[in-house]
């Protein structure tokens, strides 16, 4: 049975309390705890949470597939995820016209979270034309995806963008990436959805990685991300913490106020032993990093696979055994791993063209026709068969005023129920009493975005 909001709504309309009860039970029967952000770390309740995951993209980047729209496919692979000891998978594109309840529930039952890219090849920012591709048709698609997945307790995070900036000059697109992040976060709050962490996944480029991280964490709280992730293929076995330069990255990111993790890693230049796993989950790194995702589950032409998929058959490869051994030999640090409890904003990086071709922190305003989605919802997604968005719709006109991305600016926060606002405040723990939440909501609507982050 589907446990969607619409089925609940239908049940209420019909006054069928028995149906409602079973829907509600179904929606909540997973005991998986949603992941939250505290300081520069992820938490599962009171415990530090480290991402131990793989990138899950059967078909590769060239063949568009939604592996979590097909229950047979995902259940076949969940057996392997469990055997590997994973707690997270990343999916690069989903068809938001499809149902995902079966796979998301099966993943939750296996204790596995999802990091989801909200974009698809056809519905994404175009780095060569960021202004045109940041439009209302695009936002409708990704908001529909966000609405669909925020309801699952095991949606760990949304990637607002993936490798949009892939060199110095394309950093000029960064304000649009940041605007999309702002809009998704605002959408979650305005729609009273769970405040799923939202952030960007950066390409493996040394020349502006730190600037991009700082940029996504500077400015007013409504504009800042909830975490930052980047791809890193610089540790090629045999290597070490110092040989790989990972020690320098830890040094450079020390004091960064958001959770940080690797959205892709696993250099395949030489035989992979995944020796970096023991560094990544050691206290040498856990004060700054929160784990990462190995590229990638299935064998594709780029030769990074852990398994070979052929029809219904999955055959494990040597890299699978190597990764499993590395994980087995590497427990998480005890205690809190030395995370930074304070967290907080970065300063905005100074313009340094061509590597960092962005001046200040002025963001484009949300395209006018997309504003209504904040209050009315985005409605249904057209899925993979849609016509795409990059050359459609209405673009942004003008720049945003600071704080424009706060939920109250659309006028919905004060009148709404309290779930979203409370989540936005990042109240530690999950069991917030309704009366406290009500008070928090009132404060939120008076004081606005300044309260969002500690
Ligand atoms: C660390 O930061 C320094 C100074 O900004 C920079 O020169 C260096 O390339 C960075 N190292 C890494 C590995 O990012
Ligand atoms: C913790 O993060 C804050 C905000 O980025 C920073 O100012 C502070 O120096 C950090 N503390 C440590 C010990 O890294
Ligand atoms: C799957 O494995 C079975 C048993 O080994 C074999 O008979 C079948 O041909 C395989 N199918 C594919 C598509 O490889």
UniProtKB/TrEMBL annotation:
Its main location: membrane. It holds the Pfam family Glyco_hydro_72. GO terms for cellular component: plasma membrane; side of membrane. Residues 1-21 form the signal peptide. GO terms for molecular function: 1,3-beta-glucanosyltransferase activity. Residues 329-362, 381-417 are annotated as: Disordered. It is an enzyme of class 2 (transferase). The keyword Lipoprotein applies. Residues 392-417 have a biased composition (Low complexity). InterPro entries: GH, Glucanosyltransferase. Its EC number is 2.4.1.-. Coiled coil: none annotated. Keywords: Glycoprotein, GPI-anchor, Lipoprotein, Membrane, Signal, Transferase, Transmembrane, Transmembrane helix. It is found in: Cell membrane. GO terms for biological process: fungal-type cell wall (1->3)-beta-D-glucan biosynthetic process; fungal-type cell wall organization. The chain crosses the membrane at residues 432-453. Residues 335-346 have a biased composition (Gly residues). It is a lipid-anchor; GPI-anchor. The keyword Transferase applies. Splits internally a 1,3-beta-glucan molecule and transfers the newly generated reducing end (the donor) to the non-reducing end of another 1,3-beta-glucan molecule (the acceptor) forming a 1,3-beta linkage, resulting in the elongation of 1,3-beta-glucan chains in the cell wall. Involved in cell wall morphogenesis. Belongs to the glycosyl hydrolase 72 family. This is 1,3-beta-glucanosyltransferase. It comes from Penicilliopsis zonata CBS 506.65.
